[in-house]
Amino acid sequence: MKATIEPASSLAQHLDRVIDAFDDELRSDLPFVNRLTARLREQRGKLLRPRLLLMSGQAVGDLREEHVILSAVVEMVHMATLVHDDVLDDAQVRRQNDTINRLIGNEGAVLLGDYLISHAYHLCSRLKSTHASRRIAAVTNTICEGELMQIDNRGNLDLTREQYLDIIRRKTASLTSLCCELGATAAGADEAIVRHLSEFGLLVGMAFQIVDDLLDLTGSQDQTGKTVGRDAELGELTLPLICFLSEASSKDRARLIDALSDGDPHKREAVRAVIAGSDCIDQAMETAQSYVRSALIHLNSLPDTEARSSLIAAAQFVLQRRR
Amino acid sequence: MKATIEPASSLAQHLDRVIDAFDDELRSDLPFVNRLTARLREQRGKLLRPRLLLMSGQAVGDLREEHVILSAVVEMVHMATLVHDDVLDDAQVRRQNDTINRLIGNEGAVLLGDYLISHAYHLCSRLKSTHASRRIAAVTNTICEGELMQIDNRGNLDLTREQYLDIIRRKTASLTSLCCELGATAAGADEAIVRHLSEFGLLVGMAFQIVDDLLDLTGSQDQTGKTVGRDAELGELTLPLICFLSEASSKDRARLIDALSDGDPHKREAVRAVIAGSDCIDQAMETAQSYVRSALIHLNSLPDTEARSSLIAAAQFVLQRRR
Question: Which ipTM score applies to this complex?
């Protein structure tokens, strides 16, 4: 009699195959390129996107080889955006390690990001159908738009809550949504189920980015493993700042704007402390929680399996993470 | 009786459709993104890569809708590499215009390059088969490797001729080769013909890059439309410099190395003048000519059509260009 395999351990097996597919795809005939891509391994995170893709597949059907390939592809896309993001933000630390731009310079980091995205499409084109390629490229188009909107709005202190939500929908939630969509599609789910999972991934992605931005204000570098306070330093407003600016007295608002427009790190640190102590942090957290609640509703139509429980746990994990 | 359409005018029609496909693909629902991509139009060059693709198709069969799409795709890939290249080189002028990085900053230029490459794959995934996507992604992998090799060898004054040729094969000739290959494949050419055209494109690309690098030493900004002397300034050796370093007296060699390692622009200008007056320029030009001669041999097996004559003219044009 076969023992029942827990989703956790079954997922772990598949994740190992995803990592193998990722590493195999990046292997070059040039040793120095392999030394560069080895650096990416130190930056490997929790594999949230491959997990979402695999769990979505398991929740609606059986996992296939296609799920493993697609998981490696979405992780490559994600890594590429991280590497280019760190160049754009001039970030120095990520996941307790030096960023790629710090290790090999901005030029190398731009090219290594390009190398990752190129290999993502290359790996994806191994699949028989062009469907996944088309969906992935459509989403990378959207991610680029979100990133362009973000830097276009650097220093825009009138950024609205709606604009902020549009930016994070494009730059972050579009990919988590795609992961769930592709996981379900590759398992042969019908259109209605695919739509539910896609919406689940979108809402979880929104919550994820709101929490990520919160950690930039409330976390410490030791805790988050990356440079904190960078958003405000770059003049990028996030939910707590938008809330604070809209609710603050005209005096507080003027002080905040002065600090944000000023290069003085002490002023910025003071701002961070004031906002971290305000109820705008709680309000932003409540928004994230509300996204997760809405996300979970979309799982109601799925059969009650361990994979479905894992998806619920993943959504809840997003709210609890401290790094 | 139908008048014979000259390849030139027939090609012009197809090129107009390529430009339309290019612009249509990049159109965004975000007006500021459209303002950014409009900037790319000012940087549009001679469309060498779409021309090679279309002419290769015409030389072996009939042009199809697929040729137009693929031409827009390879031009997008090319544009993306230019935009990122200008960031890596901190170049300020291209085709008599400000570079994208000068216009919108390095951050915007990195993202606009990403946006282009993403749309290239997106457009390509509209085709029924994954064949072209797979080939294009394989070549963008190779281009990234070439670019990585190039920056890895910045300041390497021992770079050999073979290493230089390997770099330009990957970063430039791989794409021109692919253009001819895809043009022929999409027209239904048999394997042997595809191989000849692919080799033709490779050798023309080698000549193209050697001449491009020569212009960086012998051209003026007015003539080439871009910043000159940047290769040497960045410590990137090209064929004439490699030749000069290998043939120079130990005194001249020491003077050259000193000037290349020094930030002083006057010293660098002096180097440029010395090399421009040496026979290393002629030797590099002879190498480019020899690549073109070898390229033309691969056209011998094609029927004697006007398209074949256009390919010959394109190869010869590479040697004559002054910008």
Answer: 0.92
